[in-house]
Amino acid sequence: MAFDNLSDRLQMSLRRVTGKGRLTEKDIEAMMREVRLSLLEADVNFKVVKQFTKKVKEQALGEKILKGLNPGQQVVKIVHEELKQVMGDKAEPVTYKNQGITSFMMVGLQGAGKTTTAGKLANLLKKKEAKKPLLVALDIYRPAAVEQLVTIGEQLGIPVFEKGVDEKPIDIAKQALAYAKEHDHDLMICDTAGRLHINEELMGELRELKDYLQPEEILLTIDAMTGQDAISVATSFNEQLTITGAILTKLDGDTRGGAALSLREVTNIPIKYMGLGEKLDQIEVFHPERMASRILGMGDVLTLVDKVTENIDEEDMMSMMEKMMSGSFNYNDFIKQMKWIKRMGSLGGLMKLIPGMNKMTKNMDIDDKQLVQVEAIIQSMTKAERKNPKLIEQSSSRRRRIARGSGKKVSEVNRLIDSLEQQTRMMKQMSKMDPNSINPNNPLGSLPNGGGKKQKKGKGKNKNRFRF
After folding, report:
1. Is CATH 3.90.850.10 correct for 4-86?
2. Of 11, 57, 60, 376, whose CB neighbour count within 10 A is largest?
């Protein structure tokens, strides 16, 4: 994710003070120097960095922190709170008309992912807010822009209003509004033209559309990889159109992420959504508090819960839990579990949402292709073997046959067997736990035997390979 490097650096900086029973002014100064460098390297606006570090330092040097209990934890809390404030404090929802058709204008430069984001947003609001959206193709200049939006609409089952590239955008918008009224659409998401750079012709056209549509939202799509340029782009669009919110795209890329930490503070434009991949369901509401937790390696349990409830039926989940706790969990269930994971996104991304897992998986090889490899092994089993894992555990010849059939090594089959056993064992242990004894800072440490068998250091060739 875009914040990975920043997250690593900030966590390293904060380790200077966490765990210490007492802090001195010198400790705080050393930590703040590293925090300042971390933010600047992440391409955060230097004015934002200056203000952020000033606020954190003032609070961290307070008598309550320097002389209080667990001062390091309190400093982390201060940093978390200030990060949250910089990014906007709380999530900002989009607004709708009380009656009639709501219009959203999608604006931005070419290459920011505006057309794809229009489709993603329509899909999200259709699913989560029961809207009946109409996508409107108003980008008549970029080659294949209209065809791209039509294709996206077909994939999502969302209608697209288009008139090709021969009519003016304002005329298409007028016809689209009439069509939306006739077909009972309550939301129009208009994909407007972009340019490689801002010019008066573009802005004139967008102002004309704004005057006619009177949109509730003018959403600026910004590529997170553009760094500080994102601020100047946002400022220019905002001066001309009064932007109501931003959508950050490509936050899953290898970028420094400073735009997200600078945008709200510098321009006062709230970040409303973020795109985390190329798939049409990979868009999320931007929650500043959750993002601050992710950056500081605290995980994001609320987003994880959202993903689970959206993609997994509650009865199915409870049935799976009962099977695991009773010891009847088998390879058919394992396959089902993997399909759930695929639905929720990348494995590495999900792991980062679990508190503490970011550190644990730092040197592990987490690759979604492993899900495919595990599936190949299970598909090489007979129906009886999938239903009764003991058949494979007790037979080396069966394991050799499965390995040959899947094109894998016997050691990989053995690892899968171990993974199934570990999951079942852990769930059994959790079912015997006293819920009041769970340590929220180290939930695994609350399990009997510290969450399973201890691994001997340095043993095995795959000690840094993630196990399912």
Report:
1. no
2. 60
Neighbours of 288 (CB within 10 A): 21
CA distance 339 to 255: 29
Q: Which of 400, 405, 398, 401 is nearest to 376 (CA)?
A: 405
pLDDT for position 429: 66
Phi-psi sector, 308: left (phi>0), alpha (psi -120 to 50), beta? alpha
Asked if residue 241 has pLDDT above 80, the reply is yes
Q: Of 92, 301, 85, 121, nearest to 221 (Cα)? A: 121
Residue 103 β-bridge partners: 188
3-class secondary structure, 462: coil
CATH class given for the domain over 304-450:
mainly alpha
| CA nearest neighbour of 270 among 232, 238, 228 | 238
Element (H, E) at 129: none
| Residue 263 vs residue 364, higher pLDDT | 263
Report pTM. Answer: 0.69
- Asked if 60 and 82 count as a contact pair (C-beta separation under 8 A), the reply is no
Q: How would DSSP label each residue in 231-269?
A: HHHHHHHHHHH---EEEEE-TTSS---HHHHHHHHHH-P
- Dihedral of CA atoms 336, 340, 346, 351 in degrees, nearest 10, equals -100
Q: Domain 102-296: which topology?
A: Rossmann fold (3.40.50)
Q: Please write the tens of the pLDDT for every residue from 327-379.
A: 788 888 888 877 777 777 666 666 666 555 555 444 444 556 677 888 889 99
Q: Tens digit of pLDDT for each residue in 54-78?
A: 999 888 888 677 676 678 778 888 8
At 429, the amino acid letter reads Q
Do the Cβ atoms of 132 and 93 come closer than 8 Å? no
Q: Cα–Cα distance between 434 and 447 in angstroms, integer?
A: 10
Domain residue spans of the chain: 4-86, 102-296, 304-450
User: Tokens in use for 199?
Assistant: 């010019």
- In terms of C-beta density within 10 A (0-12 exposed, 13-18 middle, 19 or more buried), how is residue 316 classed? exposed
Domains 102-296 and 304-450 agree in fold: no
The neighbour count for residue 109, using CB atoms within 10 Å, is: 22
